[in-house]
Amino acid sequence: MTDQTLFTDAVDLAVATIRGAAAGRYADPTPCSDYTVADLVNHLAFGFLLAHHSATREPWPESWTADSRAPFLRDLPEPEWAAAAEKEGAAAAAAWADPRVWEGESHLGGGPMPAAAIGAMMTGEFVVHAWDLAVATGQPFSVSPALGDAALEAMSGMASMGREAGWIGAEVPVDPAAPALDRALGVSGRDPAWRP
Question: pTM to 2 decimals?
Answer without folding.
Answer: 0.95
